[in-house]
Amino acid sequence: AQKITQTQPGMFVQEKEAVTLDCTYDTSDPSYGLFWYKQPSSGEMIFLIYQGSYDQQNATEGRYSLNFQKARKSANLVISASQLGDSAMYFCAMREGNIQGAQKLVFGQGTRLTINP
Amino acid sequence: NAGVTQTPKFQVLKTGQSMTLQCAQDMNHNSMYWYRQDPGMGLRLIYYSASEGTTDKGEVPNGYNVSRLNKREFSLRLESAAPSQTSVYFCASTLLGQGGGNTIYFGEGSWLTVV
């Protein structure tokens, strides 16, 4: 079974609009972490945001926020006021186990986001 | 401020040849990882080293070996390259303990083609 599911292969959004990228996960471990990475066309993996399973509040980093709905096993990335430079592939990833152990990530298949001017 | 550095960035190999991908980090991280990314897919873990002196298999270890040379360096070796190993390879590192495991840094990737 897929541990990380990203159901949107591609999304097209107008510049300055907010965008939500979906991510659902599957784990029976009570301790886990959720990550979002951006991969521009140049290929590098850029860390965006992290949410721990025991974190009480949704994570935020600048224009990025993570809409964490634990009961639904959902960890959607919200980008506010999108910019042309946000066009990229976005990956959701999960680490099972606590933050003290090896950080073995399982990735979803990604969502290609295109921002239109 | 190099972060995670991978070499080479591009390589073409013939089937059966061997090669080593090098990775070094300058952030004093204790934990290092090798992933591969096939076209249109997310990354998959090949091997990892949770701390200096230890290595363990990930999800797709077959056809690879690793060496944690010291705290800074973690290499990935293909002993007899196969076309199925054509992929982009990423090295990553993080600091376990001391609150560091929530940020995992990746290198820029190494594009490997096996013909």
Please characterize this protein's 3D structure.
The complex is a heterodimer of chains A (117) and B (115). The model of chain A has no long low-confidence stretch (mean pLDDT 93). Chain A has strands at residues 4-5, 10-14, 19-21, 24-25, 32-39, 46-52, 60-61, 64-69, 74-79, 88-96, 105-107, 111-116. Chain A is mainly β and 117 residues long. In chain A, strand 5 and strand 6 (46-52) form a beta hairpin. Helices cover 0% and strands 50% of the residues of chain A. The model of chain B has no long low-confidence stretch (mean pLDDT 92). In chain B, the strands form 2 sheets. In chain B, strands 2, 4, 5, 6, 9, 10 and 11 form a 7-stranded mixed β-sheet that branches. A 4-stranded antiparallel β-sheet of chain B has the order 1-3-8-7, with no helix packed on it. In chain B, a hairpin with a 6-residue loop joins strand 5 and strand 6. Chain B has 115 residues and is mainly beta. Chain B is globular and about 45 Å long. The chains are: A mainly beta (117), B mainly beta (115). Chain A binds chain B through residues 4, 33, 35, 37, 43-45, 47, 50, 52, 91, 93, 95, 99-110, and chain B through 31, 33, 35, 40-45, 48, 50, 56, 58-59, 88, 90, 92, 94, 96-97, 99, 101-109, 111.
Question: Main traits of this protein?
Answer:
heterodimer, A: 117 residues, mainly beta, 6-stranded mixed beta sheet, 4-stranded antiparallel beta sheet, 50% strand, B: 115 residues, 7-stranded mixed beta sheet
Short structural summary:
The complex is a heterodimer of chains A (117) and B (115). Chain A is mainly β and 117 residues long. Chain A has strands at residues 4-5, 10-14, 19-21, 24-25, 32-39, 46-52, 60-61, 64-69, 74-79, 88-96, 105-107, 111-116.
